[in-house]
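Tokens in:
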């Protein structure tokens, strides 16, 4: 009997990873990863430096990664379904045929993918927010500079000629599905959360001139966008129906792999940034400060409320790279974690704000920055590192508290990702700060496996996400329980964090620092 497989693709910030899953046993047979050739671009390929807050990528890097990963995992194999998760919002301008404008305008920054962390559209986001509109009702009344509408507005205002040449303004995940199938099929997840699409009214009207003609209606998650095209089959050697599911936001795609498919489940996907997803069968009004809500955009037949922290793992990575103790990054993390673990809660006498990459919830302000309070001549590097760990947990608690204040009952709290599995100190601090039990799924490559489950649903291998989670998802969970003494100390420290986060004068200073030197 011919073995059948699924492939899940996880397109992250720096690289893409794929996993091959046996469709019968659920076993992960193989995985393969490839860094993007141009990485996160802070200068153009020919050398031109980009302004502050810009973060671009080259769409052709995604194709190179897809060909390499699909060839390694799928050649001469019977592939039933392919799913993919992608960072968002990461849109790009293309022709009506799907050709990226960066190929014809390599010296134009606006021709490239604006990566999710591109924060240079803050002015456009603020202008849209000032105008307001019903389309913001499910997004707390405000738009993020990271989202598609603000980035489209920036492109149209700053490069109008390029905007005229733009046939489609499309999320990179949707664009990749288009390339793999030869059919443009947009995802409801991207459209709803990042472009404020609503089934009743469509995309917002009158925000960016001509934008409506550059967008197309989306389809709900778990839908097949079509089979892998003949050209891609020849390129990769893949056999079978190879149904390609519509793309899913990378932090959302992990849900079925980690058991996040039920009412009352709060899932934190801890990566470069962090996203927290609250699932519910019934609609509730959006809690104050939470970013957005949509139905059928993450898991079918469930409402999913999205929130997050703009910086998470990248904050820790910045610190260990800036203040290294060893040549290798992994060894730096090991040394800092080991020394920080010996510090009792509160003994570093520090509190930090987790805004090194701006703030997503509740302020939606990419112009904010990090803060460290309590420094003395007795402060140690390990003490600062622990304060950063604690600040990430405080940011998570502020989000949890917003859901609770909004009337949500949280039955399970799941923290997922390699960071959650590989940094037990961080997870224990989060359990202590949150003062509740935390579950960490014991599964390799959860984001890619989640994508494979989406492929399984699209291909009809499983009937729904609940079956997909049971067959292919995590089989076990590591439980972290809060320590009473630590939780008590952190309750006091969190009050200081909340006071700093609520201080408008501090935020004014941060914004002022961003303006220094701009007029010169």
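Residues out:
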């Amino acid at each position: 009997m011919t073995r059948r497989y699924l492939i899940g693709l996880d397109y992250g910030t720096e690289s893409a990873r794929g996993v091959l899953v046996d469709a019968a046993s659920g076993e992960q047979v193989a995985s393969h990863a490839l860094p993007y050739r141009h990485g996160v671009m802070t200068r153009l390929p020919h050398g031109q430096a980009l302004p502050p807050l810009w973060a671009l990528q080259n769409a052709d890097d995604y194709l190179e990664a897809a060909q390499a990963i699909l060839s390694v995992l799928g050649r001469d194999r019977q592939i039933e379904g392919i799913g993919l998760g992608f960072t968002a919002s990461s849109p790009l301008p293309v022709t009506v045929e799907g050709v990226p404008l960066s190929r014809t305008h390599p010296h134009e920054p606006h021709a490239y993918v604006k990566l999710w962390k591109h924060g240079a559209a803050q002015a456009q986001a603020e202008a849209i927010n000032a105008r307001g509109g019903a389309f913001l009702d499910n997004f707390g009344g405000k738009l993020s500079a990271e989202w598609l509408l603000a980035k489209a507005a920036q492109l149209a205002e700053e490069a109008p000629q390029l905007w005229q040449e733009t046939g489609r303004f499309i999320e990179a995940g949707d664009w990749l599905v288009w390339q793999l199938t030869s059919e443009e099929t947009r995802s409801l997840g991207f459209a709803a959360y990042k472009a404020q699409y609503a089934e009743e009214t469509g995309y917002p009207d009158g925000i960016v001139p001509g934008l409506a003609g550059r967008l197309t209606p989306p389809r709900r998650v778990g839908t097949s966008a079509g089979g892998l095209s003949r050209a891609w089959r020849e390129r990769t050697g893949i056999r079978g129906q190879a149904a390609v599911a519509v793309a899913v936001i990378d932090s959302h795609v992990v849900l079925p792999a980690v058991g996040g498919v039920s009412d009352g489940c709060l899932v934190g996907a801890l990566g470069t940034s962090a996203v927290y997803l609250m699932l519910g069968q019934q609609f509730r009004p959006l809690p104050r400060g939470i970013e957005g809500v949509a139905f059928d955009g993450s898991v079918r037949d469930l409402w999913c409320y999205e929130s997050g922290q703009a910086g998470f793992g990248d904050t820790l990575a910045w610190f260990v790279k800036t203040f290294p103790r060893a040549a290798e990054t992994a060894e730096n993390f090991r040394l800092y974690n080991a020394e920080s673990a010996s510090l009792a809660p509160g003994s570093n006498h520090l509190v930090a704000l987790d805004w090194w990459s701006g703030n997503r919830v509740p302020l939606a302000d990419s112009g904010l920055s990090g803060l460290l309070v309590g420094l003395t001549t007795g402060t140690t590097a390990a003490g600062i590192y622990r304060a950063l760990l604690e600040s990430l947990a405080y940011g998570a608690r502020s989000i949890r508290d917003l859901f609770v204040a909004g009337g949500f009952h949280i039955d399970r709290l799941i923290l997922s990702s390699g960071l959650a599995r590989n940094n037990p100190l961080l997870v224990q601090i989060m359990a202590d700060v949150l003062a509740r039990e935390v579950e960490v799924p014991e599964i390799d490559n959860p984001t890619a496996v989640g994508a494979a489950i989406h492929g399984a649903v699209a291909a009809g291998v499983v009937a729904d996400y609940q079956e997909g989670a049971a067959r292919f998802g995590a089989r076990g969970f590591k439980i972290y329980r809060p320590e009473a003494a630590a939780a008590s100390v952190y309750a006091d420290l969190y009050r200081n964090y909340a006071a700093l986060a609520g201080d408008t004068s501090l935020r004014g200073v941060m914004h002022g620092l961003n303006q220094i030197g701009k007029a010169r």
